[in-house]
Automatic annotation (TrEMBL):
GO terms for molecular function: transaminase activity. Coiled coil: none annotated. This is Pyridoxal phosphate-dependent aminotransferase. InterPro entries: Aminotransferase_I/II_large (IPR004839), AspAT/PAT-like (IPR050596), PyrdxlP-dep_Trfase (IPR015424), PyrdxlP-dep_Trfase_major (IPR015421). Homodimer. Belongs to the class-I pyridoxal-phosphate-dependent aminotransferase family. Its cofactor is pyridoxal 5'-phosphate. The lineage of its organism: Archaea, Methanobacteriati, Methanobacteriota, Stenosarchaea group, Halobacteria. Residues 21-360 form the Aminotransferase class I/classII large domain. PANTHER family: ASPARTATE AMINOTRANSFERASE (PTHR46383). The keyword Transferase applies. It holds the Pfam family Aminotran_1_2. Keywords: Aminotransferase, Pyridoxal phosphate, Transferase.
Length: 366
């Protein structure tokens, strides 16, 4: 079996080796500060006794799992702490396929490229349901694509790469479709704190044995390097997920989990509100420049990303490299996200140089 390395790594390496200054708009690494309580937690941890530097419980620190369970309205035994949302999605998709209800994973197009890669790695087959021009998913299209071979439906809201936020009715219907076909809805909600529309709905709102919710603190606390995520499983699916997690990772980072726990307990809503406001300002700045450049673009309702299409400049890897060399801006090729956005480019707004990047693009394409 051959695995394809995601294009993210190629583009980041190409930009890093460029002979000129480049504004990095490739990956979703927040450039703002994590909560002060998180730093305090790390400092405190450094002085703990040696036993606190040993393995934590494989499923995660009990106190952190209890905090998450209380916030999400689930039983603590349903929560598994993972190595970021990446492992959470891997475990969720694995559990869906292990039920032997089929080998098909329904994905959206455009798609976050790690989902197809995980599907291949787990021995599943990919099928795609096209989102509309704004990135919204029509449940009727999902139902038409589903079959007895469908093991899982993977949904991401707020969405990477389109920035779409699915309304409550869409999430309700996706849960219902999973139930109808005895499949699992895998709801990746890692950008839930970056809902700019005010209409984000978690799949946990709908009680069902046919949905697994995944999340992480990578984005919400601006700590992508800490790799602390989690998955919420139905009770009958959690035990094997714990076993797979233990066999793959043994356990996660104990200091990182402790620092996240302290941050959750001591960080007020104003922290998240400031970051959403910062992101909203960047969206306005960047899309104004895209208007000046005559580009077509998606206005994100959430997450960190803007997709843009420039006339006569398709979103190929070759054109992304050309943009690095000639404009000094690094984005992602649309072809990395599926067939439907091959003419587009994706830019991550997690850099303080958004305005500078916008000016460079406007000048380059004018």
């Amino acid at each position: 079996m051959e695995y394809e390395t995601p294009l993210f790594f190629h583009v980041m390496e190409y930009a890093a080796q460029a002979d000129r200054d480049v504004v990095d708009m490739v990956s979703g690494n927040p450039d703002w500060e994590p909560p002060e309580a998180l730093r305090d937690g790390l400092r405190e941890y450094a002085d703990f006794d040696p036993d606190r530097f040993q393995y934590p419980p494989s499923a995660g620190l009990r106190e952190l799992r209890e905090e998450i369970a209380a916030r999400r309205g689930v039983d603590v035994e349903q929560v598994v702490i993972t190595n970021g949302a990446g492992e959470a999605n891997y475990l969720a998709m694995a559990r869906a396929l292990e039920r032997d209800r089929g080998r098909e994973i329904l994905l959206t197009d455009p798609v976050y490229s790690y989902y197809p890669g995980k599907t291949t790695m787990l021995g599943g087959t990919q099928s795609y349901v096209a989102a509309d021009e704004e990135g919204q998913l029509d449940p009727a299209d999902v139902r038409a694509a589903a079959s007895e071979e469908t093991a899982a439906i993977v949904a991401n809201s707020p969405n990477n790469p389109t920035g779409a936020v699915y309304p409550e009715e869409t999430i309700r219907e996706l849960v219902a479709i999973a139930e109808e076909y005895d499949a699992i809805l895998v709801s990746d909600e890692v950008y839930d704190h970056y809902d700019l529309s005010g209409r984000f709905t978690s799949a946990l709102r709908f009680d069902s044995d046919h949905r697994i919710v995944t999340n992480a603190f990578s984005k919400s606390l601006a700590i992508t390097g800490f790799r602390v995520g989690y998955a919420v499983f139905p009770p009958h699916l959690v035990e094997n997920a714990r076993s797979r997690h233990m066999l793959v990772n043994v356990a996660g980072s104990r200091p990182a989990q402790y620092a996240v726990l302290r941050a959750l307990r001591e960080t007020g809503p104003d922290y998240y509100e400031r970051n959403r406001a910062l992101l909203a300002d960047r969206v306005e700045t960047f899309t104004d420049a895209l208007d000046a450049a005559g580009a077509e673009y998606t206005t994100p309702q959430g997450a960190f990303y803007v997709m843009a299409r420039f006339d006569g400049y398709p979103g190929t890897l070759e054109n992304v490299e050309k943009l690095v060399d000639e404009a000094g801006v690094a984005g992602m090729p649309g072809e990395a996200f599926g067939d439907s956005r091959r003419d587009w480019l994706r830019f991550a707004l997690v850099t303080p140089r958004v305005e500078e990047a916008a000016d460079r693009l406007a000048s380059y394409f004018e």
